[in-house]
Design goal:
47% of the residues are buried. The chain has two domains: 4-270, 4-Layer Sandwich (Nitrilase/N-carbamoyl-D-aminoacid amidohydrolase); 292-490, 3-Layer(aba) Sandwich (Rossmann fold). It is elongated. By secondary structure, it is an alpha/beta fold. The protein contains 18 helices and 20 strands. 39% of the residues lie in helices and 19% in strands. Helix 1 runs parallel beside helix 2, helix 7 (291-309) packs across helix 8 (323-336) and helix 8 (323-336) crosses helix 13. A seven-stranded mixed sheet has the order 13-12-9-8-7-6-15.
């Protein structure tokens, strides 16, 4: 297609701090793009350093190494325009930047203008805001480059670039995932395209980084707001699209009146786009994901990358026969393979026969290794040791927590001896109200479902069973219990989970206050109870292991509440 511009969107998985390997991956995808005759190839925001680099940005040698790497990449670039995210430094100012490279030279560097400083973002801690909304001429077309947040606002750099007669915006991103965010992005990008009469190429990172998951979902939108090409979520892949040069030039003609409204600088790449052999491109079929499938894939990717990028090979977790540990075990097997997953069953005097059967069936269905370590002898030893001090006092939550901490010690001993990563199995509902034991079931290295409410745990387990029934049916139906005392049920301490999760969403994710939540139809005393538990257990959450963010507001980076806090409701 001689009358076309071929653009390759490289949805790649970058590792924070691994500049050398990130550079090699960028070049690997450059060669792939060149092999299909791409005219432009786009990479994600801060692809060279990984995102977010956090306080690595404060290390001068880290910034310098990334600058050296972008210069090395530029030497390998031939007749393909490359847009790549990196950290730029000018005097004492550091920028979140995009290099525009052609024929061995960096022709221009765009500095991100709108720096997010909310939720999981701390960009104003590290970067200065950019100013000039650069526009580049490439043969008969003009395009602008901007970064992530820059395209989210109507009056941002996109508008100025369109006024400078840009017909195409190349927007590079490291946009973290939460459930349903792909629809929010689509709405923003299509709205921006229609507002400014421009086509938009949206390139996003994919992969897990500590609590964050980047889901990719690259897309190309025409000036009418229609999505004409897109990549799948949670997969590392290259998406290529051909755009008509005459179509882009017509937009250019219509932008000329706007262009005369202000003074701007145009950086010329070349006056003529090189003629290339452009073999027919294969566009991978796009498969939209249902909500549970989307979240499950996010959990798989987040766990897989945490294990691999931190040099673990095997994970271990306690299995109780309950829904939470069963789901975590299934996710682990899907993420890294059942041969790399170890379960530990630690029965006590309160463990039911049904729990033993359910653990046995789960292990058989998934094909993992199981260790059984009874805890009664150790528990009795604790009770005997503490008897002189506890004599005459009724048993209470103390004895329950001792059992949880014994189990935590056993799991951590196995981790230390064999170098396994301990996965905790607590969910967001429990973490919210403190229904977890410090140094017990909270002890571990990574909390896979830390941001997954209990009601969603059930839906995810049911979804997983549609792909092959691995979680026993009884686990999906029996009443939740910690089995730390006779006939114990979660409902002895907590409201029903459908009620609890609705209140928690209103309070934690939507920042509603007590009276607003009561007005939603909830019992006043129940709301008081839940909010009191949330407020009084911040100290526990502060000591929890990192876990995968899948909601708009997760504990930790998203929600930073003081532990010592007398403000109520």
């Amino acid at each position: 297609m001689r009358d076309s511009l071929r653009i390759a969107l490289c949805q790649i998985n970058c590792t924070v701090g691994n500049i050398r390997d990130n550079k090699d991956k960028i070049l690997e995808y450059l060669y792939k793009a060149e092999s299909i005759g791409a005219d432009i190839v786009c990479y994600p925001e801060l692809a060279l350093t990984g995102y977010p680099p956090e306080d690595l940005v404060l290390k001068p040698h880290f910034v310098q190494e990334n600058i050296e790497a972008i210069n090395e990449i530029s030497k390998q670039v031939k007749e393909t325009v490359v847009v790549c995210g990196f950290i730029n430094k000018e005097e004492d100012r550091v920028y979140n930047a995009a290099a525009v490279i052609y024929k061995g030279s960096i022709l221009g560097v765009y500095h991100k203008a709108l720096l997010p400083n909310y939720g999981v973002f701390d960009e104003k801690r590290y970067f200065k805001s950019g100013g000039e909304p650069l526009v580049f001429s490439f043969g008969p077309i003009r395009f602008g480059v901007n970064i992530c947040e820059d395209i989210w606002f109507k009056e941002g750099p996109t508008r100025l670039q369109a006024m400078a007669s840009a017909t195409l915006i190349l927007n590079i991103n490291a946009s973290p995932y939460h459930a349903g965010k792909i629809k929010i992005r689509e709405a923003v990008i299509t709205e921006r395209a229609r507002e400014h009469n421009i086509a938009i190429v949206y390139t996003n990172m994919v992969g897990g980084q500590d609590e964050l998951v980047f889901d990719g979902g690259c897309m190309v939108v025409d000036r009418d707001g229609y999505i004409i090409a897109r990549a799948n979520q949670f997969k590392e892949e290259m998406c290529a699209v051909d755009m008509s040069l005459s179509y882009l030039t017509k937009i250019y003609d219509s932008q000329q009146k706007k262009a005369r409204q202000w003074s701007h600088r145009i950086i010329e790449i070349t006056d003529k786009i090189p003629v290339k052999d452009k073999p027919q491109i294969y566009i991978p079929p796009y498969t939209p994901l249902v909500p549970e499938e989307e979240i499950y894939n996010a959990l798989i990717l987040g766990l897989k990358d945490y294990v691999i990028k931190n040099n673990f090979k095997t994970v271990v977790m306690g299995l109780s026969g309950g829904i939470d540990s069963s789901l975590v075990c299934a996710i682990a097997c899907d993420a890294i393979g059942s041969e790399n997953v170890v379960g530990v069953f630690m029965p006590s005097r309160y463990t039911s026969h049904e729990s033993r059967e359910d653990v046995s069936m789960l292990v058989k269905n998934l094909g993992i290794k199981l260790y059984e370590v009874p805890i009664d002898i150790i528990f009795n030893s604790y009770l005997d040791t503490l008897n002189p001090y506890f004599k005459g006092l009724d048993e209470d939550i103390t004895e329950e927590n001792i059992q949880a901490r014994i189990r935590g010690n056993i799991i951590m001993a196995l981790s230390n001896k064999f170098g396994w990563l301990v996965l905790t199995t607590g969910n967001k509902s429990e973490m919210s109200v403190g229904y977890a034991t410090l140094y017990g079931d909270m002890a571990g290295g990574f909390a896979v479902i830390k941001d997954v409410p209990k009601t969603l745990v059930y839906r995810l387990a049911e979804y997983r069973n549609t792909k092959g029934k691995v979680i026993p049916e009884r686990v999906l139906k029996k009443e939740p219990t910690a089995e730390l005392k006779p006939n114990q049920k979660d409902s002895d301490t907590l409201p029903p989970y459908d009620v609890l999760d609705a209140i928690l969403k209103a309070y934690i994710e939507e920042d509603k206050e007590l009276n607003e939540i009561i007005s939603m139809g909830f019992d006043k005393d129940t709301v008081y109870q839940v909010l009191r538990m949330v407020d009084s257990n911040e100290y526990k959450r502060r000591q929890a292991p990192p876990g995968i963010k899948i909601t708009p507001k997760a504990f930790g980076r998203d929600r930073r509440m003081p532990i010592t806090n007398r403000y109520k409701r």
